[in-house]
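Appendix B, Record 12. Input sequence as logged:
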Amino acid sequence: MALLLLLVAEGCRPQTVTHEESPFEGAPHVLLITVQGLRSDVVGAGDDGGSSLTPSLDALFASATVSGTAITPSPDTAPALASVLTGLSPWQHQAIYGDKPRPSRRLYSLAESFRDRGFSTTAALNGPLVRSNAGFTQGFEATFGYWRGGRIRRHLAELGEKPSFTWVHFDQPQPPFVLGRSGRRARGSRISFVEMEPYRNPATALPETARERFWQGYLRQVARLDGEVGELLEALRSSGRWEDSLVAFVSLHGEEFGELGQIGHGNNMGRTVLEVPWALKLPRSVEDRQLHMPERPPVGRIVSTLLRASGAQPMPALEPSFFEESSGGALSELYLGNGVNLFSYVEGDLQLIRSVRFARPERKYFLARRQLLGDPRAGGSVAEAEALFHRLRAAFDASRPFSAGPRVVGNQLFRWSAA
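Logged structural output:
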């Protein structure tokens, strides 16, 4: 397994991706929905009254050709999203830097593959990462903000004869969370990034009362997200194109609430951030083809299946689709932590985590994160925080990401219990 990690992480450099013709007839309409931070264990979970928090997703997962839990290519948002939009690993697409994470423009994106085959390409985006970063919208002919979803729902409801690829991205469920009844914001009902950030530091204990408050805010946003997704799917059904459409849903990563002593995502390779819910509804033209499904597929295989089922032939650089047999597990990558890179390889119920230290840990690392968020309790200055992250970036650029040196490499093997 360690050899496989070495080959993938260090041997793969950014490359141009192209797609040849496929013998598949393909889907005339493709809808890709991506979300941030949706944990696998909350899909189908009940609320206090025993009702499901996610009735729309429950229905999609039940009716989908395949659905379940996948392994994200990265527990950080930008690298995971770039992998979905290119089919490549984080080290290949290089959207790994915290200041301006974006995939290389030299890469042939998912949207470009559809556009060059005559599909119209439309993206409705929620969240500053994708709205302000053109690297994620490469190949889309029309892009606009989601804003309550009216425009994108009309687009889906009015799909015509021309093939289309539509991507909808939600930056939910993420802070800020709002507690209390909808539309009422009593004092203390808003939970911000700034309030939660101190508990990212494993040295700062997360009180159970705070954890429960954060968790309830998270669940409220999960329920709201489910409603938004349900309205999108209903709009597509109303077009009369549902049976001939390919629908893919995937969360980019999970979210931690103290399971490994931290909060949020992008911190570690814990199970709650690596496992993501996903569903794939194939079009009528290919739904009877045999699929080869591992227990926890890498998200990259979902992307390849989406391409193959829409009439494209993925390049060898991409993971094999579910239409092909494939052995092996799922690789996840997390770069530029507090002087450390992390790699996870999951196969069956076994997980191998490799830690590579490229610099000494910065004592004020977590404080600097709070300073950049504008936390008045953090003290110090933004300039000091920026200097700290500049030092880490310089050390990272001067190192080998996977094998900086034998004295700083550690391997851990875990066995996952039944969920």
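Residues 2 and 300 are 20 Å apart (CA to CA).
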